[in-house]
Structures are given as structure tokens and as C-alpha cells.
Amino acid sequence: MTKIAHHIPDEMLAAYAAGRLPATFEMIVAAHVSMCDACRAALETHEMLGGTLMETAAPAAPLEGDLLERTLAQLDAPVEPDGAARTPPARMGIYPGPVAEALHHGPPRWRAAGGGVRQQILAEDGKSSVRLLYIPGGQAVPDHGHGGTELTMVLQGAFHDETGHFGPGDVEVADESLEHTPIADAGAACICLAATDARLRFRSLLPRLAQPFLRI
Amino acid sequence: MLAVRDNRDRAAFARLFAHFAPRVKGMLMRSGMGAAAAEDVVQDVMLAVWHKAHQFDPARAQVSGWVYRIARNRQVDLARKAGRPLPEEVETETPPEADPGAILGLAQEAGELRAALARLTPDQREVISRAYLGDLTHGEIREETGLPLGTIKSRIRLGLERLRHELKDLRRE
Asked: Which residue ranges does the record assign to the RNA polymerase sigma-70 region domain (chain B) (predicted)?
């Protein structure tokens, strides 16, 4: 695998550790950390800081009643598969574990999104969404700006735009100030995981009209 | 913790419970959970500590950070319909092979982290505590404290910068 050059911003890792990142961005963080040892180490550093604060700064709340006894009584009970001790999902081909889980461990069901681009929406909640994008080799995604923040992580192939070149594992962070035209490298299709926290603001009229239908 | 991991020692688990359960409960209540709901989560978390003990690696984590992660994952899981997206786990031997040098090094760095936190001003410590212990966004911090957002952000940065200076060797790549 090529070396990952574009990482998750540190404040997003801190927000993930502390549980205050929007759900769609959590998917990107979890997918990137699955592939990136540097960001995993940084995330675990934030967890260490959180744990130290929990030990020293949070007011400890006295327990009511017999919680210890009730917990001890359950030590031998079977582990719930969806419970706090659940095992994180494993990688499936090019798809990191958290993406494989969102796909229910099956192949994507691609839908045409115009211009040869295909997509599958994995999760959507009002102003935010996370989706898989399939961009044929050499193909451009229409020039667009962003109403909020968009994170794009490459899973297969590569793309480049005005800001740089992105290969497997790389994450591009785009905000309101970036208007860019991502172009997939020639050759194999580029498959990306893209998360937004606001509807994209497309620059040209036709894609903007198509926006409600494509839900980009 | 290692007695729990290696010997399945229930008395040692009870001691871990006595130490962490009230602290996890305190953190959950600080981020807005009621006492009864928080105790349910505390029970889930401590049971997970028992069941996942074989994965605990003292060369990679302090017990407090490991418990913090399990608690946050559980709390977010319960808040999401589809559960929280979690990173894949690193494949390690179970239990992880003991590496005394790395374990000692991490323990020393954790001590430095505690010392660094103790040296922060009360304001800085409070802002960092909110960021890691509450589940408040920056906007919500502003509402609660009346401090302007810019001040909060720069305080977080100042605090983290100071921590980062103390901890630069902790980021093992």
C-alpha cells in the first residue's frame, strides 16, 4: 500500500475520542484510523488524555445501591453481540471494517449519479450524509463548492484536484472556502467514502437543479 | 487490571470497579445523562472491561484511557440508531506480549501528562475537561459560560499546545 499522506485533522480525532463528532464524520475517522497507524496513535493519545481527565477532573458520582453485586453476578453471562464488548467489524476487500458494516458486509448497490459517477448512500440525517462514490478513471466530478464541511477518503484508485493528489487512505478536508474539481486518475475507477455536514453548493446550474434528485 | 486479564481475578475486578465505576458515572452525568441511565451504562462498560480484558495492552494504553474509550463508544452507540462506527482492531497476540520497556515508558509519559494537567491554569483545565468529559460542542460551551468562542478556541489551543509540548514523544509513529 502506498504511504498515506493526507490525515484526519487532530481536532477531529479529539472530537471522535470525546464522542462529540457528527455521525457521518465518525465513519470517515473510523475508516481512516483502520488504515493509518499514525492517526490511531494520535487517537489513543487523546483517549489517554480523556481517561486521565476522567480519573482526576470529573466529579466522581457515588453509586446507588448494589451495582457492584449486580455486575459481579453477570460476569459469566454470555456477551451480547451488539453490546459494549462487541468486536469491531473486519475489513472486506477495499472496504475498511466500519464501511463493510454499513454495507451489511455485502457489495455496494450502485446508483447512477450522472456523468458516469455512481454512488451509494450509507447514511443520511437531515443536513449530513455519508456515501460511497464510484468515479470512472479519468472522469471529473463537477466543479463544486461546499456549504459546510466535506471529508473525502479514497478507498481505491486516486484523484487529484487543485489542492493535491489523494490515494488510498488519504482524506481530503474541504470547507466553504474550497471550490474544486476532483478528477479521478486514469486507469482503475476511483472509489471514495465522502461525508458532508451540509448540502453541497454546485457551481453550474444543471447539477444544482439535479441536486435534490441526486441528494448530493 | 493485569490480575483481571491474566488470572480472571474477581476481587481485582471489584477493586477496578470501585475505582472506575463512580468516575465513569460522573463523566456520563456531566455529559447530560440521568443517574439511573448512567448506572446502566456503567454496568455495560464494566462488564466490557471484564470481557475485553484479554486485549488490554499496558504498552499502548493506561487503564483509564482504555475504560474512557469503552465508555464513550457505549455512550455514542446508544445515541445512534446504527451504532457507532468503530475502527478495526489492530491484530495482536492475546494477551499482548509484555514489553517491559514500552510499558514503563508509557507509564512515565502518563505521569508527565498528569503533571502537565496539574500545571495548567484552572481556566485551561476547565476548558479541556469540557472538551473531553462533556459532550458539548464549542457553540454550547459559549452558551454555558458566556465566553466568546474565539477565547475558548484559543484557550483550548493554548492548553493543548502546552500538553503537546509535554507529550510530543507520546505520539509513537
From this structure: 16-84, 116-165
Q: Which of B170, B151, B171, B149 is nearest to B159 (CA)?
A: B151
The per-residue pLDDT for range A92-107, each reduced to its tens digit, is: 999 999 999 999 999 9
The shortest CB-CB distance from B21 to any of A53, A59, A63 is to A63
The distance of A103 to chain B (nearest Cα, Å) reads 12
Q: Which of B125, B127, B122 is nearest to B150 (CA)?
A: B127
Contact A26 B76 (CB under 8 A): yes
- Cβ atoms A4, A33 nearer than 8 A: no
Q: Is A111-214 CATH 3.50.50.60?
A: no
Residue after which a domain boundary falls, among B58, B85, B112: B85
Residue A122's CB: how many other CB atoms inside 10 A?
A: 22
Any CB–CB contact under 8 A between B127 and chain A?
Answer: no
B35 contacts chain A (CB < 8 A): yes
Q: Indicate the domain borders of chain A.
A: 111-214
Residues in chain B with CB shorter than 8 Å from the CB of A85 are: 47-48, 51-52
CB atoms within 10 A of CB A158: 20
Last residue of a domain, one of B60, B85, B110: B85
ipTM passes above 0.85? yes
Per-residue pLDDT tens digits for A117-169: 999 999 987 778 899 999 999 999 876 666 778 899 999 999 999 899 999 99
Task: For residue A92, give how far its alpha carbon lies from the nearest alpha carbon of chain B (Å).
Answer: 11
Query: How open is the CA angle A125-A126-A127, to the nearest 5 degrees?
Result: 105
Domain ranges, residue B118: 99-173
